[in-house]
Amino acid sequence: MHRIAPFLQAFGDQIAGSELFIRQLRLRMNAAAQRDHFVFEFGDARRNGHGVHVSSPSMKSVTQHSDADFPAAGVESLRQQLLVATLSLNRQMKLHQLSTLAAIADTGSIRAAARSLGLSPAAVTKAVRELEADMQAPLVIRSASGVTFTEFGRTLVVHARVVLGQLQRAQAEIDALRGAAAGKLSIGVTPWVALTFLPPTVQRFRQRMPEVQLEFFEGLLAVVQPRLRDGSLDFSIGRPPPASPQSEFHNVPLFSTHSAVVARRDHPKAGCRTLLELEDAEWVLNWDPASRESISDNLFRKRGMRVPHTIHLAHSLAVVLGLLAHTDMLSIFPWPLVEVTLAKENLWALPLRETVDETIVSITSRRGAPTSPAAACFLDCLREVIDEAARSQEPEQRRLFHSIELLL
């Protein structure tokens, strides 16, 4: 029998007088060749006693835990804290196997993964082979040049990262409830928000949760979307992914703003008044490849223009700024970014008659993923900073809010 000890969070639907009433949460987990059905029953003094009753058809025995079992694990009480349950399954992948698979994906080889995990290469190889046996599918292809993933392996890596990320968040939430707030908060941030609202938000957040480590990524869809999907990013503040009824992401709109075409001040086309005059220009856009068609439609085709042959894509604002300063390329910036970069970077917003591309900035997270206390605190700080800036009489803040529309 394989054993797994995951952290499973169970929340009561109703809390009254600090007593957790009976609630049943049904968790369906895919085992290697079966589906396991778990039932959690929570009790209180007015019902059937404190504790939790855990059962599953695939478990060899039903387990019963009481409040007395939990202080040793650092959990004060089922009434006040999240449940940490240990389950024994007949067939199930192990967490160390998932950690090993994710480490191989992150480092690119068995040896590098072994070093990062503090294991021997033989132990890493064994974990992968056991996982392949459990999944009944080849996951990696080993060669002299390193390791590549099969289609099965690539799929499992995504889910492994989600599982491991959720377990880390569960531990962080439990630590926070115990008064030992720590851990890491990973955030994607669009450049103009990073240059305006982010610094005071971070200062405020650090005062409230000084033990939490912050990690930031530039908030481009090509960067943040895979990380949101695999759970390695808590949320992003930037352009939302394309909407669909079955979207895997949840979006909360923050701002709406228009954009401008920008170039260096002495650019040959700096005085152009229409987009048609820019038809033969060379462009560099700080966008992701998935947005290229929508940009082409909104900016060129709907105005009866041909799409320029040369549109370069850059996944870094620094790269775009460098190219604009030293070439004849043009770019498109949201107006708030124009406000904070024109003077510093010797750039110029072309005085076009047309309105250029409306942009929405949203808080985007993975649909169904719980918001950690650190993430909730950070977003509270962000909203406070935005609210205070919106009421500010400082000229710089007034110019900024003249270029955006609040959607909160």
TrEMBL record:
GO MF annotations in UniProt: DNA binding; DNA-binding transcription factor activity
InterPro entries assigned: HTH-type_LysR_regulators, LysR_HTH_N, LysR_subst-bd, WH-like_DNA-bd_sf, WH_DNA-bd_sf
PROSITE patterns assigned to the protein according to its UniProt record, in alphabetical order: HTH_LYSR
Gene Ontology CC terms: cytosol
Pfam families, alphabetized: HTH_1, LysR_substrate
Key words, A-Z: DNA-binding, Transcription, Transcription regulation
Domain HTH lysR-type: 93-150
Protein family (similarity comment): Belongs to the LysR transcriptional regulatory family.
Name the UniProt record assigns to this protein: Molybdate transport repressor ModE-like protein
Organism expressing this protein natively: Paraburkholderia bryophila
